[in-house]
Amino acid sequence: MSIPSLIGEAQTVLGTVSPDALGIILPHEHCMLDMSIWFAEPPTVTGKRVAREPLSLDNLWYVRYHPYSNIDNVQLLDENMAIQELMRYRLSGGCTVVDMTNVGLGRDPLALARISRATGLHIVMGAGYYVEESLPPGSNMNEDDIAREIVRDITEGVDGTGIRAGLIGEIGIKVWPLSEGEKTFLRAAALAQKETGGFINIHTGRSPNSPFEVIEFLDKAGADVSRVVMSHIDRTLFSHEDRVRLARTGCILEYDLFALEGWMPENIRMVYSEDEPTRRADLPNDAARVDHLIALIGDGFINQLLVSHDHNSKTRLCRYGGPGYAHLLNNVVPMMRRKGMSQEQIDVIMMENPKRLLTFV
Ligand SMILES: [Zn+2]
Hints:
Elements: E1 10-12, E2 15-17, E3 25-29, E4 33-34, H1 45-51, H2 60-65, E5 75-76, H3 79-91, E6 96-99, H4 109-119, E7 122-125, H5 143-155, E8 168-172, H6 180-196, E9 200-203, H7 210-220, E10 228-231, H8 240-247, E11 252-255, H9 286-298, E12 305-307, H10 327-338, H11 343-358
Parallel strand pairs: 3-6, 6-7, 8-9, 9-10, 10-11, 11-12
Antiparallel strand pairs: 1-2, 4-5
Helix pairs in contact: 3-4, 5-6, 6-7
C-alpha cells in the first residue's frame, strides 16, 4: 500500500532525493522549536523571575539545570540563528538533519525549506502529533483522522505549503502504562506507516517498561517494528540486558542525548521510573554512551543503532555556550575511534542506518 512514487526515495523539505545523497545524517534534532508545552513554572518568586529572563551568562548554569523553567530557553524561533548553528555541522562534514519538530512543537515547513537552501543541508521534516496536549483543545480525532493527516503531510504537504514530511514522528509517549490517547496516536502511526512506507520515531516514556510496551502495541497494530526508532535510550534503559532485550524485538535504539554530560535537571531526567519515582539513575555521559554502543555492536546489533543530539533548547547551541550540532562529528567520532570503533562501524551508525530508515519502502 506504499506510495509508488516514494518507494526507494528519501523525502526532504525541498523534495525527494536519492538516499545515496544523504551522507552523514543527524537523525533526531530540532532546528526550529517551540517547546513551551514543557515549560514548568517554578514555585518560588525568584524562580518565577528567572523563568522570564532572557538566557544570559548570569543565568546560564541555572537554566542548564532547570531547562524547562526558562521560557526563552525552550524556544528556538530565530531562523538566522538556526542557519548559523547548522552551518557548523555542514562545515564539519554533515549533510542531512532530521527535524523531529511536529505538531505541538511549532513545526514550520517554510522556515525549514529556507534553512535548507541557506545551509545546503538536506532537512527531513516530521509528521504527526507530539504528545496528547498537542491535539487542538476539545479535539475528538480518532486514529483514522490522525493517520489521514500524517499521510497527507507525507504525500501532499503540510498546511497547503506543498512541503512534505519524510517520516512519522516524533510520536510523544509520556506514561507507562500507555494512556488511551497515546494508544490512538500509536495506532494512527501504524496505519500511516502501512500506507506510506515511512519509518516511525517514538519519544518513549521514562519508565524502562515503556519502550517494550510501545513496541508490543505497535507490533499488534500492524507496524513494521524494524522501521520503528525508539528515541532517548540513554535516559530510559539503564542496563545492557534491557537494551539487548529491546534490540531483540527488532526495533532501532537511538542514543540521541549526546552532549548531555551529566548536568541533568533534577526531577526531569533522573527519575528511573514512573512507578518507582524515588529511584534515581544517572544519565550516562558521552564516553559511557559510546561504551554502550560498542557493547551492543559486540552483541550483533550494529544495524539497529542511531546517534544524535536532540538539541531542543538554547543552552544546547554554540551561541549560548552549548555543544551545537557539530558536537558528534567533532568530539564524539574521535572518541569512538579512540575506543576502538572502526570507520566502517561509524559509517554504519551515522550513514547507513539512518539512510535505510529514511528510504521509503
Ligand atoms: Zn526530540
